[in-house]
Amino acid sequence: MNAVEFQTTVHNGAIKLPDDQKSWDGKKIRVILLDEASLDTTDLSATEATPVIDFFSYAGIWENREINQDTIRTKAWRDTKR
After folding, report:
1. pTM for this model (two decimals)
2. Where are the domains of the chain?
């Protein structure tokens, strides 16, 4: 999947592609609309902001465990023939 980001103004319900993006003409595309006014997050109070979870604080759950591609495959595809 290819993704391109650009800014434009909608006129009469139509989005004009920039000249350097004309290769998209006639293609079926997925469009995500973001209102620039809603991108300003400076108005959020500390309680409204989503806390950032430190990924590495959870890394301890793998401590002293051998986790690699082989051990995962062995557990996932156990020999079921008996």
Report:
1. 0.40
2. 19-76
